[in-house]
Every structure is written in C-alpha cells, then in structure tokens.
From TrEMBL, chain A:
Compartments in which it is found: Nucleus
Main location: nucleus
Annotated region (Disordered), positions in chain: 25-50, 691-752
Protein name from the UniProt record: Origin recognition complex subunit 3 winged helix C-terminal domain-containing protein
UniProt domain Origin recognition complex subunit 3 winged helix C-terminal: residue ranges: 624-789
UniProt feature, compositional bias: Basic residues: 32-41
Species: Marchantia polymorpha subsp. ruderalis
Keywords assigned by UniProt, alphabetized: DNA replication, DNA-binding, Nucleus
GO CC, one annotated term: DNA replication preinitiation complex
One MF annotation (Gene Ontology) recorded for this entry: DNA replication origin binding
Domain Origin recognition complex subunit 3 N-terminal: 17-360
GO biological process: DNA replication initiation
From TrEMBL, chain B:
Domain Origin recognition complex subunit 2 RecA-like, residue spans: 19-195
Subcellular location: Nucleus
Family of the protein in this entry: Belongs to the ORC2 family.
Biological process per Gene Ontology, one example term: DNA replication
Protein name: Origin recognition complex subunit 2
Task performed by this protein: Component of the origin recognition complex (ORC) that binds origins of replication. DNA-binding is ATP-dependent. ORC is required to assemble the pre-replication complex necessary to initiate DNA replication.
Domain of life of the source: Eukaryota
Quaternary structure, from the entry: Component of the origin recognition complex (ORC).
Organism: Marchantia polymorpha (Common liverwort)
Keyword tags: DNA replication, Nucleus
CC annotations in GO: nuclear origin of replication recognition complex
Domain Origin recognition complex subunit 2 winged-helix: 250-309
Length: 791, 320
C-alpha cells in the first residue's frame, strides 16, 4: 500500500487518540433547534395543562420535531423497559429471596456451630481428658467447607446472566450483604490468584492494596459497620474461569471462613456435573454445595411477550411480520432475552425516527380523554396533516372524503387503538383457554395467530382453508362437556369488563348448564337419549350432574347402565352440541371482528412499526456477504455509467473490485504473478507484452518457477515445494540483493515506467483486499501466492 | 525509482464523482445516526472503503453537543490507558466549562483524572458520569491491529457501556463480528449496524501494512519505519535512537549486545528495568525495526536492518 508522503497524513492520523473538537454548542454559544425544542419538551407539564396551540412550533422543517420524537421515544420505551424489568424482577424474585434466606440460615447455622464447638473445646480443656485434639480436628474440617450456592442459569447466555446477577446483587445489598462480583476476566491464568483478590478488595474495601493479603479483608470486616454482615462472593461465569486459579481461590477462602462469614454464589450455565469436572477433588472438598435453578429463557420470553405485546398498552405496536421475525430470531439465532429487548428497542427507535407524527404516541400514552387528543391533533401544522393524508392506510379511502377534518379522524383512530388492543387481548385470551385443552404451547399459539394475521387468510368453514387458527376453533366440536363448561367459565372471567360480550358468554353457559341438567333428569327418568355421532369424551359434562345425583341417592341403576353406554364412542347430547356450536360461532365472530393485525387500521403508520428489513439490517451485520457484494456490484452501488452492467470485466471498474473478481477464478491459493498478469491484461491490453518482457528480465531467483494458473492442486503442491526448498529471506539479505540489483543491467526504464501505474494499482488493490480480510498475504518464504477467503 | 504512493498520486482517480455522491448520500442519515446515539445505541459502520473521512465529517457536522474523542485503531500500537485518560480528561474539562457559570456545580467538580491514576480509577470516573455529561468516542477500525487484543476490546466495551459515552466505530475486516461475544456486542457496545460502503481508498489504514507486492526498496522501508516509530512512545523512540546512534557510530560492528544497550538506556533514564527494555524491543521486533544476529564474539547482538544512508535519513525524518 501507499507508504506515502509523510506530509499526506496530518499528525492526528498518526496519534492513537486525540480530541477532534470540544463541545461546540457551548463554546460558540449557539443553541441548535434540537435544544430549543428539547427545552420546550421539558415544559410539557404547562403545555399539557392547556395551551395547546403553543405546543408545536410552527416550522417548515419536520426534522425540528426530532426532539419531540426523542422525548416520545423515551417515554414509550421507558414504559416498555419498566414493564420488562418488573417482569424479570418478579420472575427472579423467588429465587433471589431463597438465596438470601439461605445466606441468613447458613450464617446463623455457622454461628451456632462455632458456639457449640467452642463450648465443647472449652469443656474438654477444663476436664483435661486429652480429647481436645480429637474434637478440634473434625470441627476444623467441617468449618473449612465454604457454603456454596450453585445457581443454574438455564443456558450459556452471558448477556442474560449479567442482568440476572445485577438483580441478585441489588437484592442482596438491600438485605444487608456485602457483595463482590467476579467474572472469568478476574480468573486468568496469567494474573494468578492476584486477579480475583485484587478485584475482591477493590469492590469491598474500595482500594487495591500492594499485597493481596486476606488479613486486610479480615481487618476491614472487623470494623463496626461491617461486623456480622455476610460477604457474598459471586462468580458469574464459573465454567469460563481458569480452573487452577478458581480452585486456589476457593481453597484460600475456605482457610478464612472462621474469620470471615463468606458464602460463594457460582453461576452455572451448563449442568450439575460441570463443577465436578471443573475443580479438583481437593478444592471440591472445601465446598458445601446447594442448588438453585432459574427459569429457562423461553419461559421468560413468554412472560415478556404476554405482558408487552398482548396485555399492556404502550402506544406502540408491531406488525405480525415483525413479531414473527423477532420470535424466529430468538429461537434460531440468539436465544437470549436481552437480544429480544434490544430488538424491541431498535424497532421503537427506528419507528420514532422514521415517522414524523410518531410523537403523538407520547401524547396517546399520557392523555386521558379523546377530546384532549383531538385538540392536540387539530393544533398540528398543516404539513403534518397533509403528511397524514398520504398514509397508505387512509389515502383515497372514503373517510377522508367526508366533511370532517383529517385531525379529527386521526385522533379518533388513535384513540381507538386502546379499545382495539383491549379487544385483541381479550380474544387472544379466549383462544388461549381453548389452546390449553388442545395441548398447544403459548409460543406455538401466538406464532400461529400471527402467521394467520400476516397471511390475512379469511376464516372459512371449508376444510381446504384450515389454518392453525381454524383447526383450533374447530376443537369446540370435539370438546367434552366438562372442558366446555370450564372454558366458558374462563371466558366469562376474561370478558368481565365487556358487558355485552360477557352477557353472551353467560347465556351460552347458562344454556349449557340447563340443557345438561335436563338431560340428566331425562336419563334419571329413563327417557330415551338422543344418540348422535359424537366423540366419547363429550359425556364428561353429564358425569358431573350424574355424580351429584348419585351423591343424593336419586339415580337408578338403569341410569348408571346408560351412562356406561354413553361413554362408548359415537354417543352425544343435543344440548352439548348446540352449546359447542354457539361457543364456536361466538369465537369465530370475535376473531373476525377483533383479531386484526395492528397494521390494518387507519393511521396505523403513526404507532405501528412494520419494516422487517430495516430491523434485520440494524440487528445483524452481515459483514462477509455485504462486503463481498460491495466488491462484486461496485458499479451498481456507485451508479456509474462507465462500467459494464453485464458483468464483463473492464479497466473502468474499481481496482479492488477488478482484482477481487479476478481472484475468484482461483481456489484457496492465488498465484500472484498470474493474478497480476490477468489484472494488467484488463487494465491495459497493450501492456501485456511489456509485462512479459519484464518477467523475462527479472532476476534468475524469481524466474523459472512453475506457473500453473487455474490449477489449484498443482499450485498448492508447487508452493509447498518452494516453501521447503527456499531458505527464509531476511531483511539484510534483501538489502544485499538490492545492492546486487543495482549492479545488474536494469530493465529498460520505458517498460518499467509503463508498468508502474498498473503495478501500483494492483498493489493497492491487494492491500485493500488484505485490510477487508478477503486476502491473506504470504508468510515469509512464500511470496508467490496469497491465500483467498472463499465466500 | 518512484514509490507506490507517488505513482498512485499521479494516476487519474476513478469514479471520483460517483464516490463523492455516495458519501454525500450518507449526509441525509446524519441526524438519524445522532438520534440513534441519543437513544442509547452504539453505531457500527461496515462495508467496503475507508470510513475515516465519513465518520469525522459526521462528527464535525452533527456531534457538536459534546466533546469528540477519536481513536485510530489502525495504528499498530494503541495504549488503552491513554485512550481512557483522554476521554476522562475531555469529560472533566467539559464539566469544568459547564461549572464555570454556576458556583453550585463548580463545587461538585472534584478529582481531575490524572495519567498517574490506574486504568480502573479512570474507568470509575467515566462510569460515574451521568447521561447528560456526554462524550462522543469515535474508533476508526475497531477491528484494527492496535485494538484487536481481547483486553483492549474488553476495556473499550466497558467504556462504551458507560451512560455518558456515545460510541461510534467502523470495521473493515469481514470477520470483525468474531471479536465480540453476545454480552459485549449486544449489551455493552449495543451495536446498531450500518452498511456504509464508501469505496474510498484505505490510504491511512494501509500505511502500516508491509508492501508485499511492491519493490522492496529502501525508500519504502524508511517510510514504513518512520511511520511506525512516530506511533511509539517518546521513551521507545529514544531507545531506538540509542541503538541507531551506536550503529551509525560503529558501522563495521555486527550490532549492540543487549546488556550494553540496557546500560546505555539506563544511563539516559530511558528505562528503569531490563523488563521495560525488552518490552520496547518486542515492539520493535514485531514491526521489523530491529533484528538479532550473532556478533563477532559469539554473543547475540541487536541491529537495525537498514543501510547507513537509510538509517541516517530515518533519524532525520523522525527526530528532526
């Protein structure tokens, strides 16, 4: 590459680190538009109270609304984040409390043991029976065992573990424990035992003493404010630590447990056996192990999804395609809750940047009445209202042709998102109760529903269009009486706040109960039973009533016989069938009316994020593919007119592109000479001859090597032979060669001058390919081939 | 004989207009990138072409609400303590400037970061700052040779995770994502990937790479050596000068034995222990500035593999 003129590079480019500029906003006294609007945002309380017209600065540039959007993003994301944090805390609270309780119990138990042993030792000493040593020994070995909690974290997900230990540390600190957190970085073999001890002292005593003597820690713990408080030492990723250092550390700590109330908490990502495989028996014998298990990430994801995407209103929504991508990403790519939270944040940030009207989501979150929202919307500058009319969800639709202003439609639509979300949640919960009986997991159900929404297939009774949802709904037909009754009862609870719907569900339930009572009475009085084709398990509903009759002694033996007959396949009851049908119809209607994707409503562009591709791009940096494509399609990216579009090679192509395309012709190893020749031939076909001339005039050491282009096997073989045969050329040898070269008759200057630009271009291209990692330069002693990265 | 750089300079540039248009098209995203930084993400630019000019233009145009610290990861040696110290100092100066108008805040400004403090102390200082005291950190080639080391990446990730730090970086190597585990990439750096090919020459990023395919003349060697030497600490430069002076004074000798070099350097207060000297020598050896060879009396000697003329020119370039 260009070793370049020194003057080409300013001093900053050769400094490892420098300050490009200070805070220019303050130094120049300039206040940018963002700041102005940010200040406005801070006074939002007064704005909310009444002065609606003054809320939005009337400016032509939508970018100046960036501060409002940032503020809205922070409000919305703050709400989602708080929700998630509460869920994670709630999920882990039980385990954290159990660990904290365990620490207290261990401390109490240890204290008791110490008192007990001291008393025995004292009494033995007084008696002078000579048993002192025999008592002391077992107590010492017993006392040297460190109480150790193995916390099974449910997977190798360091990003999730960090969050868990943050919570645990907070919990223990609140409950008066000294906590020190160590990671695998503290247990490196090169640092030895000093690594964890230094980190321990730093976290507990807030100093790094010159010597890592545990006596310092003991002295610190004897101070009044620390006395009696347990010291919890957390090793977050036990399996990643150096086993030798870890074992030494545990042995050292166990030597001090008489002076320091230490407990160990070890984060275990894998299995129960890991600790036994990790530590030698001598170290393991010093640990008294207790086990605690956290919930699996899948469970946590389920809880988070329920809370964030289904049950709560955050004034921000995702299209089914985006949620499906997130789920797929979690299951097949990452499996960490942290990455899901991060992805959610990316969608949120992208949406709030992209959509100029997204700041209304912040308003939607805090406003209490539709009238307030209407007022806010009507105060919007015209350009925003015009922008709203351009949304694909409303453009050309009837609603905008009416006399009412756009702002009113927009406010009404936005306000309705609350009730839509509520209904969506209700219908989904109704389906969930049904899925429970079908043995379908939450994840499968949720993805099934989303897939159906994404496909937007209409519900149909015909067998050909049965989607996952249709199949689920049809389960009503096969449902037993008991299951139907409990499903309806759950529905009644779910729909408690929707009076009409609740009345409908109650009616179906009442009808079902009354019909089953009638049938029981009929059975009891030997009335003929209406036999219809139905699965055997549908008689369960009747069994409840019959069992009650048996209890009261009113049922006859013949009725019991008939009951036995009904349990055979193909026996059913009219009341049950009609109730099943009614419930099925109700659910179908609810699904049709309320289970709609978030991006199907008017003005959804304001609160709904739907761009899966931008999320993918932000989340996954596909460096290999993208750089490869950058090089192969440089003419497309640069949009130049000089390069051929049909894939033909031309000298007008970017040099690195040309060199890269040419290198594709080879296998793993590329012979530089051949590669250069083909490069030169394309750059300037006239020079092809002169390149050969130069080759012939090159020094004998470089001439006469086998040049078998496009033949990988023989090329590799040849290179290997050359590697073995040729001695390593040192720098001083190169210097000698250079001086000898001066003595030799030189190649004609004209030819050299002619080839120089192409050589320089080729050198630059090769170096650039080396920088991007697509080419590995030769090691010393093998300077005629380069290794290519095959993508 | 012309150097590669000289020849390339004379060549008419290809696609100059198109490249400029491509880079200009990213200007429309500047505000968006700033928004993402303020939302708590770190920006990571990838794609073919040098992104140095793009990032610095972005910083100059938009990142004006805080100091901007630039780290050149393409250099062969980057000392993390210096980087962290620069960031801490920038923050401290920023606080002082803010406090100059308010007596109340001035009282709260304590503990100026010092280079004598440990790396942990400096990190604690940065971690203690709130989101409102923001500092922008731009790392060119975060996958570069100077910052590719595990320890450096861990420290950079700790810096990036601080609430007051807004982090922007570029990668060029296609295997760059392998540098980080999930914890670092998703939680600490919190990358927001941006595909920003520029097709700009890697003129600065490539200066430390050996010129394998060009003629290995002394001119190239002097320039490479000069660039490497300039990126070293003053003490390391002085140690090199001590060896070079000896070589120029005794051109017929095979080199200077280690113990003699150590005595010479200790006399000049350049090193306090042999360990420090060996650390410098390792760095020289890594960049092929010095070599070992057997002396006349059979002991190993250090020498600079340059001719007298080349060495004189190098000393002239670097030390004058």
């Amino acid at each position: 590459m260009d070793s370049g003129d020194d003057g080409d590079f300013d001093e900053n480019q050769l400094q490892a680190c420098f300050v490009l500029h200070r805070n220019r906003e303050k130094s120049t006294g300039k206040v940018c538009p963002r700041r102005k609007s940010a200040k406005k945002g801070k006074n939002s309380e007064s704005e909310k109270s009444g002065d609606v017209a003054g809320l939005y600065p009337i400016v032509e540039d939508p970018a100046s609304y960036g501060a409002l959007r940032l503020q809205a993003f922070k409000a919305v994301w703050g709400r989602i984040q708080k929700l998630i944090e509460d869920i994670v805390e709630g999920e882990n609270h039980e385990i954290f409390s159990a660990i904290q309780q365990w620490i207290c119990n261990r401390q109490f138990s240890d204290a008791q043991m110490t008192v007990y042993h001291t008393a025995r030792l004292l009494s033995n000493g007084v008696d002078g029976t000579g048993l002192e040593s025999s008592w002391a020994k077992p107590s010492a070995s017993c006392g040297k065992q460190l109480n150790t909690a193995l916390v099974f974290l449910g997977g190798v997900n360091p990003s999730d573990h960090r969050r868990t230990f943050d919570g645990l540390t907070g919990h223990l600190n609140v409950n008066k424990c000294h906590v020190a957190r160590l990671t695998s970085i503290d247990f490196l073999s090169k640092a030895g035992l000093g690594g964890p001890l230094r980190s321990l002292f730093r976290q507990l005593i807030h100093i790094i003493p010159e010597t890592t003597d545990m006596e310092i820690l003991a002295a610190w713990h004897r101070e009044v404010e620390n006395q009696g408080l347990p010291i919890a030492i957390v090793v977050e990723d036990c399996e990643s630590c150096d086993p030798k250092v870890l074992a030494e550390f545990f042995v050292l700590l166990s030597e001090w447990i008489r002076d320091l109330p230490i407990v160990l908490i070890l984060g275990m990502a894998t299995s129960d056996d890991a600790i036994r495989k990790l530590l030698p028996a001598s170290a393991l014998a010093r640990l008294h192990l207790w086990r605690f298990s956290l919930k699996a990430p899948q469970k946590l994801l389920e809880t988070i999804t329920r809370a964030v995407l289904i049950e709560s209103f955050c004034a921000f929504d995702l299209s089914p395609e985006v949620i499906l991508f997130l789920y797929g990403y979690f299951e097949s790519h990452d499996l960490t809750v942290t990455s899901i939270i991060r992805s959610l944040k990316i969608t949120c940030a992208e949406h709030f940047w992209r959509e100029p009207l997204s700041f209304l989501c912040g308003e939607l979150l805090v406003l209490n009445s539709k009238a307030d929202l209407e007022e806010k919307c009507s105060a919007l500058p015209d350009m925003f209202l015009h922008h709203a009319t351009q949304f694909s969800s409303v453009k050309g639709k009837l609603l905008l042709q009416e006399d009412e202003p756009v702002s009113k439609h927009m406010a009404a639509s936005l306000w309705d998102t609350r009730s839509h979300k509520k209904m969506w949640k209700m219908v989904f919960q109704c389906i969930s109760t049904l899925a429970k009986y079908g043995g379908i997991s939450f994840g499968d159900l949720f993805c099934g529903v989303l897939q159906w929404l994404a496909d937007s297939s209409p519900l149909s009774n015909s067998d050909q269009t049965l989607g996952p949802l249709e199949k689920l709904i049809s389960k009503f037909r096969d449902m037993s009486g008991t299951s139907l009754r409990s499903t309806l009862e759950e529905w009644r609870k779910i729909t408690l706040h929707e009076k009409e719907l609740n009345a409908e569900v109650s009616q179906i339930l009442t009808d079902f109960i009354s019909s089953s009572t009638v049938s029981e009475v009929n059975q009891a009085s030997n009335q003929p039973v209406n036999l219809r084709k139905s699965p055997s398990n549908e008689v369960e509903g009747v069994q409840v009533g019959v069992s009650q009759q048996i209890k009261h002694g009113v049922i006859s033996r013949s009725a019991l016989r008939r009951l036995g007959q009904q349990q055979c396949p193909g026996v059913s009851q009219t009341g049950l069938v009609s109730s099943n049908k009614k419930a099925e119809d109700l659910l179908r209607r609810l699904v049709r009316e309320h289970l709609k994707p978030a991006d199907s409503r008017p003005f959804h562009e304001i609160y709904c994020f739907r761009d899966v591709n931008s999320l993918k791009e932000a989340l996954i940096g596909d460096t290999r593919r993208r750089v490869h494509m950058d090089l192969l399609n440089s003419h497309n990216v640069l949009k130049c007119e000089c390069c051929p579009t049909d894939g033909e090679l031309s000298s007008s192509l970017h040099d690195t592109t040309l060199a890269y395309i040419l290198s594709q012709e080879y296998g793993d190893l590329v012979r530089i000479h051949n590669w250069y020749q083909s490069f030169a031939a394309i750059c300037d076909p006239k020079l092809q001859g002169s390149v050969k001339v130069q080759e012939e005039n090159s020094p004998p050491a470089r001439r006469g090597r086998p040049r078998k282009s496009f033949d990988l096997g023989s090329e590799e073989e040849g290179s290997a032979k050359q590697r073995r045969g040729r001695p390593r050329k040192s720098m001083d040898a190169a210097m000698e060669e250079e001086s000898e070269e001066k003595k030799r008759p030189r190649l004609s200057d004209a030819v050299a001058e002619e080839n120089a630009p192409i050589q320089a271009r080729f050198t630059r291209a090769a170096t650039e390919l080396q920088i991007v990692g697509l080419l590995q330069m030769p090691k010393k002693g093998n300077s005629d081939t380069v290794r290519r990265l095959c993508i | 004989m012309h150097s590669v750089g000289e020849v390339l300079e004379k060549l008419p540039p290809k696609h100059q207009k198109e490249q400029a248009a491509l880079v200009a098209s990213y200007k429309a995203s500047y505000e968006k990138w700033h928004f993402q930084l303020r939302s708590g993400f770190g920006l990571l630019m990838y794609g073919f072409g040098s992104k140095k000019a793009l990032l610095e233009d972005f910083a100059t145009a938009v990142l004006v609400d805080g100091p901007v610290v630039v780290v050149n990861g393409y250099l062969p040696v980057v000392r993390m303590k210096n980087v962290v110290f620069t960031i801490a100092s920038a923050l401290w100066e920023e606080n002082c400037a803010q406090a100059s108008g308010s007596a109340k805040r001035r009282k709260s400004i304590t503990g100026q970061p010092l280079l004598t403090q440990t790396l942990e102390d400096l990190l604690t200082f940065i971690q203690g700052k709130s989101e409102s005291d923001c500092v922008y950190v731009i790392v060119h080639n975060i996958d570069g040779p100077g910052v590719r080391d595990d320890d450096i990446q861990r420290t950079l990730a700790l810096v990036a995770a601080c609430p007051c730090v807004r982090f922007v970086a570029s990668v060029d190597n296609v295997n760059a994502p392998l540098l980080w585990d999930k914890q670092m990439a998703n939680t600490q750096y919190n990358w927001w990937w941006h595909h920003t090919p520029t097709y700009d020459d890697y003129s600065v990023e490539g200066i430390y790479l050996p010129v394998h395919l060009a003629a290995g003349g002394s001119l190239e060697t002097i320039k490479s050596a000069s660039l490497v030497l300039r990126s070293l600490t003053p003490n390391a430069q002085s140690v090199f000068k001590a060896l070079a002076d000896f070589q120029l004074a005794h051109p017929e000798d095979k080199g200077l034995p280690l113990h003699q070099l150590y005595s010479s350097c200790r006399d000049q207060f350049l090193v306090s222990s042999e360990l420090t000297l060996r650390a410098h020598l390792t760095e020289f050896k890594d960049h092929e500035l010095v070599r070992w060879r057997r002396g006349h009396d059979g002991q190993d000697c250090l020498f600079i593999p340059l001719t007298v003329d080349a060495l004189s020119k190098l000393l002239q370039d670097v030390y004058q």
